[in-house]
Amino acid sequence: MSEENKDLGDKAEEAFDDAKEKAKDFAEDTKEAAGDFADEAKKTANEFADGAKEAMNNVSGDNKKILAGVLAIIFGSLGVHKFILGYQKEGIILLVATIIGYATMCFVIGSFVVMATAIVGLIEGIIYLTKSDEEFYNTYQVGKKPWF
Fold first, then answer.
1. Which of 76, 87, 90, 123 is deepest in the core (most CB within 10 A)?
2. What letter would DSSP give residue 138?
3. pLDDT tens digits for 54-90?
4. Which one-letter DSSP state was computed for residue 140?
């Protein structure tokens, strides 16, 4: 019986060593697959970023006019249209004024500030969309006229 136990012990040890070796192989395969996945994800992310940069760089004057006009009408109080046209200072002014307006809305003055920034955006959006493409380009992209 002692020899039987020894054989069983040897078999168990062999089975344990075999399982340990298979676990090592599986871990190596998993690491390799994870590395391949990470490389593929980086490649895809870089392709997406390059495509987005190219798309934003190819926005022409006409597309900026429509984009800026629509954003001015919808999100005018936040100054998004100013950022699209490259007027960071003016965009920040509208954004900060709107935030201050919302923060002071419990006082009556906050409502007027938010309303004023929304009206500015609405008026600018209408002006952008009613100008011809050439006039818009010359006024807002070449001439850099920041307000109205």
1. 76
2. I
3. 655 555 555 688 999 999 999 888 999 998 888 899 9
4. I
